């Protein structure tokens, strides 16, 4: 199976043989497992002191006193004498079900499954239906995967990258990102995020010759070298089919990356 290589103006200049990885069967189940496993690796275990809320003399008075049978602080002159303590829901009491540092929050995936999930996500970048399903704007793009000459790796200025994206025909997808960018209001459930930015095009290169610096300020656009490519970049939110630009050297390097891996 062959594909066209285009220049920075979107014009075909030659054809190359696509690696066998683009024939891998679409496996959304494996892709989801691999992405979730990657996401859990960023989580930090946290827990409470096992003795928190238990350092007290509180004991229950028992029955027959006309009082609730919760533990109460001992003593007569103590400022908190007779007040409820120790039990969940009391002042300075323990938590009912506190988080434990021993809890296993990191999910694991077999090495072969991870490789197959990566191969399946790579193959999905060549399927128009999956790219459209993710919501990318791909009007005017004739064939997938999109392979660009290695000139794209040398673009070290934002203006040059924007010009190249317009020439290739993916700038409309960046405009979609800009139109949907949201500033989250104070007090919203943003989990620490100030902005919510949709995912735009991904640029995969064989080596960084300035493209990372040139594209870092364009919202939604990510640049990654082939040796650092992972499933989450290709399938954000576990949904495969991200609009991806491949440099010619990155395409050639896929054969070596999956050498000896059974793709079926």
Structural description of this entry:
The chain has 264 residues and is an alpha/beta fold. It folds into two domains: 2-29 and 109-257, Ribosomal protein L4/L1 (Ribosomal Protein L4, Chain: A), CATH 3.40.1370; 44-52 and 69-105, no CATH class. 28% of the residues lie in helices and 11% in strands. It has eight helices and eight strands. It has helices spanning 28-40, 111-124, 128-133, 158-168, 171-180, 211-215, 231-234, 248-257, and strands at residues 2-6, 12-17, 146-148, 182-183, 195-196, 202-205, 222-225, 244-247. Strands 2-1-3-8-6-7 form a six-stranded mixed sheet. Helix 1 crosses helix 2 (111-124). The mean pLDDT is 93.
| Low-confidence spans | none
**Order of helical and strand elements:** EEHHHEHHEEEHEHEH
Number of domains: 2
Full CATH superfamily name of the largest domain? Ribosomal protein L4/L1
- Looking across the biggest beta sheet, what order are the strands in? 2-1-3-8-6-7
| Average pLDDT | 93
Report the total helices. 8
CATH class assignment of the largest domain:
Alpha Beta
What's the alpha carbon Rg, rounded to whole Å? 28 Å
Binned strand content:
5-15%
Structural class of the helices, strands and pairings?
alpha/beta
N/C terminus separation: 17 Å
At the fold tier of CATH, the topology name of the largest domain is: Ribosomal Protein L4, Chain: A
Number of strands: 8
